[in-house]
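thread from #wetlab-drylab

HS: before we spend reagent money on co-crystallization trials with iron/sulfur cluster, can we at least see a predicted complex? here's what I'd submit
DV: go for it
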Amino acid sequence: MTVHDVRSRQSDSKRGDSKRGDSKRGDASDGAIFAEAVGGRLSRVDGPAKITGAAKYAVEQQLDGLSHAVLVESTIAAGKVRSIDTAAAQASPGVLLVLTPDNGLRLNTATDWLGTPPPDIPYCPLARDVTFSGQHVAAVVAESFEQAVAAAALVKVAYDETPAIVDLDDPKAGDGIPIDTMTKEWGDAQAAFAAAPVRVCAAYNTPREYQTPMEPHGLIAHWQGDQLTVWEPSQWLDGMARTYAEWFGVPFENVRLVSPYIGGGFGSKAFAYGYGAVAAMAAKMLGRPVKLAVTRPQTFTAYGGRAATRQTVALGADAEGRIQSIVHRGVNETSVDGMWVEPLGSVTSIMYATPNFSSRQNVVRVNTVVPGALRAPGENPSAFGIESAIDELAYEVGIDPLEIRLRNYAEQDPEANKPWSTRQLREAFAAGAEAFGWSKRAPEPRSMRDGNQLIGWGVAAGTYPVRRAYGEAMVRILADGSVEVESSSIDMGQGTYTILAQTAAEVVGVPAENVVVKLGDSRYARAGVTGGSRLAGVMTGAVHKAATAALDQLVGLAISDPNSPFHALQANTLVVANGRIASPRGDGPEVSIAELLGSVGRSQIEAMGDTMPANSTADDRYKNYTTIATALSHTEGDYSRHSWCAHFIEVRVDEDFGTVRVSRVVSALDSGRLYNPKLAESQWKGGIIMGIGQALLEEGIVDRRHGRIVNNNLADYLIATNADIPDIEVISVGIPDPHSSALGGKGVGELGIVGVAPAIANAVFHATGKRVRDLPITLEKLI
Amino acid sequence: MRDFSYLRANSIDAARQAAALPGAMLLAGGTTLIDLAKCGVTEPEIVVDITHLKGLDGITVDDRGAMIGALARMSSVADHAEIKSRFPAVSDALWQAASAQLRNMATIGGNLMQRTRCPYFRDPANFPACNKRTPGSGCSAIGGVTRGHAVLGTSEACIATYPGDLATALVAFDAIVHLGDRQVAVDDFFLLPGATPEREHAIEPGEMITAISIPASAAAGRSTYLKVRDRQSYEFAAASAAVGIEFEADGRTIRDLRVALGGVATKPWRARAVEEALKGKLLEPDTVRRASLLAIEGAVDHGANHYKIELAPRVVARAILKMGETA
Ligand SMILES: Cc1cc2nc3c(=O)[nH]c(=O)nc-3n(C[C@H](O)[C@H](O)[C@H](O)COP(=O)(O)OP(=O)(O)OC[C@H]3O[C@@H](n4cnc5c(N)ncnc54)[C@H](O)[C@@H]3O)c2cc1C
Ligand code: SF4
């Protein structure tokens, strides 16, 4: 398929400009000389295809005989489906099938993402027992989309409704279930807090938030015999292929997932969801390809956004603001029949040094869709709690909010008791403060203004663990001298196409524009989930390994093949640069890769590389790519590995209207070595922009009588627009971290958002003297 | 969405005749109509496309006022040099409405006719009770999520906010809606919900907006539209004010004042009490702030929209004071 052939053509970044502006910004990544080598500022190679519309997204595939499925959703939040009257829908023009829980195929329950073996019970993607409003209860398949929509409106569902637990504040919700694995304790936190001369204690809340990717979800499912092809935007092809295979009881190899382009996922596209099962089931029953496009309103309930959270953070400190104790309690909501734990103590336990610590977490079941991952799950709300609390402590003690963070700097991981692999957070504070001009800050709240605008400056730190796993890649050197990289990993805008081209180009010694990267097809070399900022580290390592093996083969052929022009040279090694092979000393011939392959009569060289331990079995490998069971802990071995950042933010609050506008952002970030600073900067900025939306705008609003989200569209669920975003300056302070990944990078994608919301809340306090502990900070909270 | 027949009108009369047929609805830019059809709120049986009608998209401005054809695009009106200079509030209101894409599609006639953003109104599958949609069915909003609902002009039957920006500016400057030969003052064109919230406009079946005229006035020439909202762009008003002012020769005493509120009432809301209180007075911050409180006389909140009662007078005061600054 041509859609996969993303060539790394240069656009604005030509050779030699990789250092542009970097040194001034303290970019400590080891500056590569060429834009197309690892570390260079190569522009996104998939950019032109997306801008011109040439990139075909999953549901845009044209298939003969395509039919269209539309979901029918529950209109109650709790109860039972008493009956479904499908007669009118069946009789509606063009209708091929009306699916209900009673007439579908019997599916198996699939293994979950952790690799937990499934119970031997059937899986029904259409609900008989309704546990949230918006749940799929039926589906209509018709010749055209319009016919399916019209018929879906004719399906009459009768319910026996029962009282719903609508949210965390519902009196019926209770205290929830303690999650023991989230408990972290050392010292005697309660006693130390009680004895501390300075104490702050407050509750911090975050609402339901949604991923709102530009491309809504959906798929096309097509069966040929017992072979299933699914075109679906996916952050995890092999994981989702496994799920489909297990649902339908066919071998993993029989399912092909295709997902060359993804219009944003932010955590929401890693799993196969119920609507996928519905579409694949309908396709099998009809013997025709079925398209199911999830509507924007359905993206609020077809899968989960970030769970609403509640935290209490108590900090006890001495008179100089040195923390003596942290007592943290967290609660997140989950669904009635599914479990989602949003780890709320994840930043709390590592950001600051403290001799006494206690964190516990409960999970409360409410009638909602099971929540899911949204950019930096856990770390994001966790940072809102601790980074707001330490700001409150700074005012209580009467010292600068930046100074209190330095005073409590954790020199090593206080939880794991291990040294950091690298922690450039002090450098981030310094570089950010300098660029922002923090030293000019007037300490008192409400002390800076411009007409009606109260001005506030806030700081907060963020962190994200380095998630690691093993990777696999196929690298081919083709007869024309170009290089091909294949992986079933994906590019949802974060730059996989580009950095893998850079990696292969650097290793093999060809210009990046001669590298074709093929992603997003589960037939390619396998890959684990693209999530937790782990893909770049995993895949550059795997491509590096496979490309090195391919290069070794190439050089081996050149040295030993009797028909090679280098045969007579009896060299030990050869160098390949810019697509040409020569001896290191420059004596003897110089030929292009294509010429060499021609003279030795080879059409291509192929090397599959993986970074799995040598003794891994086929089953280990399967597990590694289809579950996260084999992922490596960030504290495994001698080090604790994390990315770090510090955000400095200026807000302007209209004192009459309560409206908050972010007017300046300077963030300094430590993601280790950057494989491509340009793309890393874009990702950081993307995270910061999402953080601004989270701080000021985003909130799923529940009608508490009906347990239903009422702002399930992009006119009413507000995300930041361009007008809400000022210029954002990002500064890289990372250094290569050999303990985190093969090439020295840490995580990039999740990091940027962590700490933005508390930095804004802290700035709002500085501006107004009002502490808002409930996100989002909307105008009525300040008026 | 269900099947409908599509008619392309080739004359105003043909459009009117078609619009009188049962189940017929006019289609202009489609940004409200198609949206509501997708939500299942409108189910037209006949869609009468008026976008090809000639001569309805003109904008003419002279000393007597402005005449804007019903099919003029929001963006064309917003960007019209004479509208900008003689009716700045009208241009401001349009610029701050919706998004660039919508403004390029949407027409002035359609804009006046846009429906409320009440989330219950927009979701018939989940909230069958809505007096505006189905008279007598009840109101799902009362007792529910009301952050965006009106505090002025509400009734027991309906508390839905009229969301448009343009009409707020029009009502401040006594604009007139032309329904062919019949003319209705814009303030009378929009109806209070009372016991019949389904009836929003003084327009009869078979009638069509052909133009809007705005009489010239000194106050319109010195006017502004101030829109306050959580998001900087692409959001309906939390509260807005259209204000126009004319001073006596001393440049400080208010001779004429026009004030209308948006985002807080069930229809574009003229605040005559504020106008009267300030006419003949010197423009001074305290006087203006005090008088602006009259804007929300009789306001009733439904919980989450209480902030609008605080906010609206402040928006009015700021807009009036801003007009004074440019004296
Ligand atoms: C996401 C979103 C955000 C928006 N934000 C704002 C905002 O911030 N401020 C704001 O003011 N507006 C906003 N709008 C509303 C927008 O301005 C209106 O949708 C638009 O002006 C309608 O014009 P149209 O030509 O597209 O109307 P259509 O959708 O074609 O028609 C709307 C209605 O008017 C009727 N109609 C059309 N023309 C005539 C006529 N000549 N005579 C009689 N009846 C007629 C139609 O039958 C239909 O019922 C927003 C809309 C959307 C979708
Ligand atoms: S406020 Fe009006 S539009 Fe909204 S539900 Fe009630 S009756 Fe319907």
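DV: The interface with chain A takes residues 1-3, 40, 117, 119-120, 123, 125-127, 143-145, 147, 228-235, 238, 304, 306-307, 310-311, 314-315, 317-318 of chain B (CB under 8 Å).
HS: ok that's useful, forwarding to the group
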